[in-house]
Amino acid sequence: MTTMERAASISEVRALYSPQERLRRDQTVWTLVQGILAPLQFVVFLISLALVVRFFYSGEGFELATWSVLAKTSLLYLIMITGAIWEKVVFGQYLFAPAFFWEDVVSMLVIALHSLYLWVWWQGQWPERLQLGLALAAYASYVVNAGQFLLKLRQARLQGANT
């Protein structure tokens, strides 16, 4: 695909940001906050995933794996709150702005699974493997959601390069 064809196909898709939204996005501190929290959460996710998988293979390290899931979940809550503030500043609503509707829908599943994990952990009645199995399900949904946001970031960069 040539550069002209790519530009034409991108312009056929609704622009992710209006000029005013792009300006608000570029001027708000919440963009920087999201830019710091997202990779931080991903690093904590990778460490936690390794600890959870280690537990499944060796049967050791349940407490450390649990604390890592709690750290990952805490970062998720923080990024969800600050992301909602970012969305309000940029698009005028806290969640489900048209440009990020499906990302927000999947984010609700991610937060629900992580919250269910917290409840299960707090109750302490599930066996260790089931608890961390739930964490893995929450992590799988997180990977899907992170992929959605990476695609949106790419779309924004492509559209920004063509404006």
Notes on the structure:
With 163 residues, the protein is an all-alpha fold. It has one domain. Helices cover 83% and strands 0% of the residues. The protein contains 6 helices and no strands. α2 packs across α4 and α3 packs antiparallel against α6. The longest helix has 34 residues. The chain starts with a helix and ends with a helix. The mean pLDDT is 91.
Backbone structural class: mainly alpha
Mean pLDDT score: 91
Number of separate strands: 0
Number of helical runs? Answer: 6
Radius of gyration: 18 Å
Helical content stands at: over 70%
- Morphology call: elongated
Strand fraction? under 5%
Main pleated sheet: none
Model regions low in confidence, pLDDT < 50 over at least 5 residues: none
Helix and strand run:
HHHHHH
What is the domain tally? 1
Distance between the termini: 19 Å
Descriptive tags:
single chain, 163 residues, mainly alpha, 0% strand
Write the layout of secondary structure elements.
Layout: H1 3-12, H2 19-27, H3 29-58, H4 62-91, H5 101-123, H6 128-161
Helix pairs in contact: 2-4, 3-4, 3-6, 4-5, 5-6
Concise overview:
With 163 residues, the protein is mainly α.
